[in-house]
Every structure is written in structure tokens, then in C-alpha cells.
């Protein structure tokens, strides 16, 4: 029966406790609220419609939590964003979606490897949330920023990060292949090794002709 109350619980209990206040006690309360939020999103107690109604109030608070000093809070915030994208990503307006990816890109430079990895997974989920009416030409500046930042991390010292980024970039390639190809070619010779860039360019060239006509 909790499902009947979950929207009110999120609105009246969790959201107020996610608001930033100074001090260690307030930080601990925010971490607890983030933990509850993730449990609520994962547990299936909140419906698609309920979450969609509260997304505009929830997202800015989760974005703020992505900047917390606490690694646990940043990790919980990343996971909460992933869970939100899984639940309602394809129903979000393009403007709402375009506010999410820059926040995730910041976490790709996180001091925690775990946060970086979860943020990269969330970028993949963001890409899966883009429906056919997300116009790649109209939103080309957004895609260009996304591609440029991901290509930076394609040159990461950690090969496992490079592999993870390559998979996300391959996913990107069907969105705007010509733009991604141009950006990849521009950085290829500046990277420590052209291997991953070459693998990406090879993947783009193997795409069906109709995809390449973007």
C-alpha cells in the first residue's frame, strides 16, 4: 500500500531533506535522504507518473548533491539520476534532458573511480532516453559538447575507463555520426595513442548509409 503514499513521501519528507544546509549534521541528513531516494526509485514503489510530476523539483536537488564533499552522497546522487532516467528518461522534455548530461560530465573528473564509472553508465542511460524526436541538428551544440568531453576521457590513463568511454561513444555515433567523426578526427593525433579513436572511427564508418546521412 506504500505506493499510494510514495509521492507524498518523496515530496514532503525526502525533498525538504535534500536541500543544502551548512554543517555536518545537515550533510549526514542529506546522505540519508539520498539513500532513501535511491531505495524508493529502485524498489518500484513510485510510479512513472508520480515521478514525472516531481521531476522538476527533484532534479535540481540531485544535481546539487552531485557536488557534495561526501563521496557517498555523490555516488548515491549519480545512482539516483540513473534510476530516474531508467524510469522516466524517454518521457522527459528535451530541455529537461539537456540539463542532465552536463551534470554527469562534471562527475567524469571525480576523485572517486566508482563515481566516475557510475556517471559514465548514467551517460549511457541518458543516451538511451533520447527518442526519435530528439533532433540532432537542432541540438547539435549539446551533442558537440558531449562528444568533446567524452573524447577527452577516451584518452584516460586507465584502459578500463577508455573501454567504457568507447562503448558510450559508439552508442553516440548513431545520433550524429558526421559530427562525432569530425570531433574524433580533430583529437586523434593529440591523444597518447590513436587506438581507441581509430576503433571509434572504424565503428562510425561501418554504420548503415542512412544513418551517416544526418
Automatic annotation (TrEMBL):
Classify the source by domain of life: Eukaryota
What PROSITE patterns does its record include?
A: HEAT_REPEAT (PS50077)
Maestro/Maestro-like HEAT-repeats domain spans which residues?
Answer: 54-176
First and last residues of every HEAT repeat:
100-138
**A Pfam family it matches:** HEAT_MROH2B_C
UniProt-listed InterPro entries: ARM-like (IPR011989), ARM-type_fold (IPR016024), DAAF5 (IPR052623), HEAT_Maestro (IPR055406), HEAT_type_2 (IPR021133)
Record-given protein name = Maestro/Maestro-like HEAT-repeats domain-containing protein
